[in-house]
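Why do we bother with a discrete structure alphabet at all? Because it lets us treat a fold like text: something you can write down, compare, and reason about line by line. To make this less abstract, here is a complete entry for Monovalent cation/H+ antiporter subunit D. Read it the way you would read a sentence in a foreign language you are learning: slowly, and without expecting to understand everything at once.
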Amino acid sequence: MNHGLILPILIPLFVGCLLLLASGASLRVQRALSLLATLALLPCSLWLLAQADLGSVQTYALGNWPAPFGIVLLLDRLSALMLLLTALLALFALLYALRGDDERGRSFHGLFQFQLLGINGAFLTGDLFNLFVFFEILLIASYALLLHGGGRERVRAGLHYVVLNLLGSAFFLIAVGALYGVSGTLNMADLAVKVAAADADQAPILAAAGLLLLVVFGLKAAFLPLYFWLPRAYASATAPVAALFAIMTKVGLYSILRVYTLIFGSEAGSLANLAQDWLWPLALLTIAIGVLGALSACSLQRLVAYLVVISVGTLLAGLSLGTAEALQAALYYWLHSTWISAALFLLADLVARQRGVKGGDLVQGPALQNPHLLGGLFFFAAIAVAGLPPLSGFLGKLLLLQAVEGQQALWLWPLLLIGGLGTLVALSRAGSTLFWRVGRDQLDSAELDYGRLCACLGLLLLSPLLVLLAAPVLEYLAATVSQLHDLAAYRQTLQAGGGL
């Protein structure tokens, strides 16, 4: 048994507890502990990625209890990729926060580590109940992080966010209870076997539970009509928190991919492809509503939040197509959209800091102290997020458009292309307001912080890096998709644990 599988959970767990217990320690000590823990996740994730690339699906049974009775962690190519994505994102978000945003409230670093604990646990868990537990951990941490810095707008957005997610948690628990009541297990691999063998009396309850899970994951992923909480919550959060939240919608999408491929996938008998008919129209409508929201956004932060909604719709379209080519394209776009969205939240904060009370509002404000530098970064980010060549957004969308065929192509091609044009128009409007139509005076107190700038630049540079490494990345993603469709590999892990 590979004990390294549990490190992405144990590192933030122990450091998070230590930071909360040592809340009276100096800020310098807290920053050092938090930075060391976040840095440690990077080589750990790279090592697990190398382990996953060996090809086998690995499991880790906590307490040596065999599946399906014990808590099981599961490492495959997909979960390893998500861990690396999170580690890189968290590192740059934390580096940005260390320049002063962590001083705006209490226990920032402890909450940051608990957020990573929940996210890493959700990507590694092999059973639905622990997916629920890790969801709750990351949500509780996110409630407090969203309020970090205080203010009326954050409290209002936080209240909305908390109420909706508590409702989602209740639905999650009901669905999990129904699945356990019928099948007697919550281990995902075991559930896949039990659902495929379900008789006519069990199938309606399993289907109801499966669709209830889709509602829960849809709320986390923020696709139509469950996205309303996202623009206000992300726009009101502090910049490093919003950047870290760029991975939150991906946790919901990851759950959809995992559950509706493994449990309710093509080999689920009478419940095969349970959610497939719902995902495609929801994906298209989410892209459309995201573009409309971006065009009507009144602040740069809210515009970026709607760009996150567009990326959710685009990814959901790739997942709903279900083919190997579409999933490979979606996973490539997944990496791109997470890092670029996070970079845009940081860049929006850099711009807002030089506009005083105007902040990120899309109205005429004072002249920026560094218009050429910030304008150049904004131009670069706009090209990347709109999907123009030569950056990774273009490659991701191109792969997705090549993967769609037949009648579905008639819907996706115009929607993605017109949506890209709408995104470009929204970003052009924002750019001209922020960098061109400005007053003559500058704010003397708004100097550029080069530490924050480097953190933002680091995330932006991941886009050309994705293009330069496109061949090995796509090769890894092709192997990931192939492994996801090889359900026998997941069932073998169950047999190894003695569950069947």
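What the structure line is telling us, in plain words: The first strand starts at residue 58 and ends at 61. The chain has a mean pLDDT of 91.
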